[in-house]
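Thread: quick sanity check before group meeting

JM: Hey all, I'm pulling together slides for Thursday and realized we never actually wrote out the predicted structure for the chain we discussed last week. Dropping the sequence here so it's in one place. If anyone has concerns about the input, flag it before I start.
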Amino acid sequence: MRTSRVWRRLLGVEHTVVEDVELEGDGAGEVLVARVRPTWSRRGRCSRCGRRCRGYDRGDGRRRWRTLDVGTVPAYLEADAPRVACPVHGVVVAAVPWARPGARCTTSFEDTCVAGRAHRRRGVDPRRGRRTGPPGGPLPGPLPRRGLGHQGTRRRATALALAKVRTQTGSNEPLLGRDATSATSRTILGVPVFVSEFVAANTLWALDRSRVWLVVRDDAAVEADRSVFFTSDRVAVKATMRAGFGFVHPQSVVRVGIA
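JM (edit): ok, ran it. Output follows.
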């Protein structure tokens, strides 16, 4: 197995060229940084629709994404983040195959965190898909994909039913397509599709992101306490904020039932 392929497997990325890997820092603050770039077929694509576009500028330069730990060492991907000029969405940051648009973590890191949260009550290690807590009771099955959670049976049935829908009568083209920016993501006519355990079975919700607002109910309050860690020279910091989602145009929220 080639070294670059080994690093791709360890870092949890696809369609990626690993140029260099090094350790930064020392001791407890040591991190692994992998300098990467998309493969030729994944370069210069719009992060919204996935179409190939002409370059616009270098954007804000190089940036980093948190990815899966390598052993006990935290790992990051570092790459250029240029912008492209999409004829539909205008000037946007170019898509990368290892992360979703606007994310600070890789897709594999986000999916592992979601799986870990969904299975925490069942004592399952999301990286290995088996029980790690106290024995007792039946062992769970394999981990579901992309945040299906512990109610994954019904959610998988909904996703499978959607996968059988075609674009039109007599056509073999599936309505559920692949996301050009991520091998594990799906789209419907270029619109991202997310699977959630919090949506009822056989139900789809279509939302226009331009009509959905994040509403801050209470401003962030930050508190610091120097007494709780009196055994060492540390400060505890707590930040709280109340926020919610506002739908300013109810007619743009569409519920679709799957028979």
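AS: nice. Residues 16 and 38 are 5 Å apart (CA to CA). The chain has a mean pLDDT of 77.
JM: adding both to the slides.
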